[in-house]
Amino acid sequence: MSQKVGDRLKAVRTMYGLSQRELARRAGVTNSTISTIEQNRVSPSVDSLAKVLAGIPMSLINFFTIDLENGEEIFFRKEDLVELSDGTMSMRLVGATRKDRNLRVLHEIYPPGGDTGDNLIVQKGEEAGVVVRGKLEVTVGERVQVLGPGDAYYFNAEIPHRFRNAGDIECEVVSAATPPSY
Questions:
Q1: Which GO MF term does the entry hold, naming one (predicted)?
Q2: pTM more than 0.90
């Protein structure tokens, strides 16, 4: 195995917020085992490394393929969000440039009377959101509910649905969907 196994183990352990002592406890090995591996003083066998990684838990494949320095953005300023507006409402996408996104997160603003259109939306996966401000009318199949600040929704997105601002002030929502449809 590469001389970098120790460096990689330390980076992964740190990424998961574990101390050497905690990882050793979880893996059923001594603290000195973790320390000597991380200092690259020993090259663990595949079985030994698998035992240590079970304390995270992480597979050997994930350990060797996880991109610890992928350079992808993690934090986004307001101006970094990509606007997907159709002119009747604002939908700002978080992390639009991330490769292989498995989640869609939106910051949505509906003006009074604004909605997602007359046609009901149908897509694969699940959708959830929390109303931050205003009133949002959510239609899912035959069910209709008006939600206020702090109220939330979560449903199977294959059921026809739509959203509409049911109040007289701007409605703000933070939503997520998986898998991302855009």
A1: DNA-binding transcription factor activity
A2: no
* pLDDT one-digit tens code per residue, 99-126: 778 899 999 999 999 999 888 999 999 9
Q: For domain 3-63, is the CATH number 1.10.260.40?
A: yes
Q: Token digits for 74?
A: 């993690």
Q: Is 14:21 a contact under the CB 8 Å cutoff?
A: no
The contacts of residue 60 (CB under 8 Å, 6+ apart) are 46, 49, 50, 53
Select from 33, 28, 38, 30 the least CA-distant residue to 8.
Answer: 38
**pLDDT single digits (tens) 32-45:** 999 999 998 888 88
Domain ranges of the chain: 3-63, 76-176
